[in-house]
Amino acid sequence: MGIVNIDDELHEQIRRASSVSGRSINAQAGFWIRIGMLCEMNPTLSFNEVIAAEMRAAGVVAPPRMADAS
């Protein structure tokens, strides 16, 4: 494990995002780093496609889609 130095403004953004997502500040930073790395490694995939692929890889089964209410 290491220490990453980031500027104060980025740290504040991570702190705010962590309060919304229910993650610790470190977990939020780790999430952003991991997703950023995956997006760079898979530039043709959207953010949602990257997340869906990671969920599948973790064995998370997506719930059935809801039928249109209209």
Question: If you had to describe this structure to a student in words, what would you say it looks like?
Answer:
The chain is globular, with a radius of gyration of 16 Å. The mean pLDDT is 90. It contains three helices and no strands. By secondary structure, it is mostly helical. The protein has a domain of 33 residues.
Count of DSSP-assigned helices: 3
Q: What distance lies between the first and last C-alpha atoms, to the nearest angstrom?
A: 51 Å
Shape: globular
Helix content estimate: 55-70%
Low-confidence stretches: none
The major β-sheet equals: none
- Content-based structural category: mainly alpha
Features:
70 residues, mainly alpha, 60% helix, globular
Structure at a glance:
The protein is an all-alpha fold. It is built from 3 helices and no strands.
Architecture blueprint of SSEs:
Elements lengths: L7 H14 L3 H17 L5 H11 L13
Helix pairs in contact: 1-2
